[in-house]
Target: ErfK/YbiS/YcfS/YnhG family protein
Amino acid sequence: MQMSFTKPAATALLLLLAACAPRPDAATPPAEGTAPETAATPMPSPEVLAMYGAEEDDGRVIPAVDPKFLSDAKARQEVDYWTDEKPGTIVVDPWARRLYLVKENNRALRYTVAVGEDGRGFSGEAHIPYQREWPSWTPTQNMIAEDPELYGPVKDGLEGGLENPLGARALYLHRGGKDTLYRIHGTMDDSSIGKATSAGCIRLFNQDIIDLAERVRSGTHVVVLTRAQSGKGTVPPGQPLPPVDYRPEDFPANPTTQET
Model:
């Protein structure tokens, strides 16, 4: 679909859009273990800079992530992870802003994510029946009804691309044969990664969602932790869970499982 926005208007609108929720807002503190994004933040290692450098994908050039949004702790990496889940399972910890792809021998590949309110309001088990490369995005009818001025101009959807809020890939979560409307996807806003925001599901750097998508197969099992479970797997069995790094005002007091 051909959009009729002026470039500044389109850019402003797209920066506001969230893939899974109706209301955008400013980001809040970085995840535990990620350094504050200030001038004093240590420069990421050359390996991390290379990992998040510019890359071409399906004819599109994904820009390099600005080093000020990176740190060695935020980069995807293999870590110790103790779980009874089978290798290949994705475990999402929305409260710690981490995603784990379970491997063998008490190890996992860890990614840093940004989490919106919908991402914190969903918990439990699901599976990924399919994924999409450079997915299109369409606001729900509820979103359009709630804010027609914001979402009306894109009611027919946005084609996939660098300016799409779903980014380079989207993994679609289903439960009980139904779409949960919960997504794990890329982003057009690298500054949000590692933070809690008021809008959206679970998003990763485009470089990371491409890496994750290449490792995911149809039927992949997904477990989304509750706030009480946050940190599960990061310490050996029998040890107390690490404290959850959050401010009460940043998170809903009683997150509910999203059923559709």
Summary: Confidence is low (pLDDT under 50) at residues 1-17, 21-31, 251-260. The chain has six helices and twelve strands.
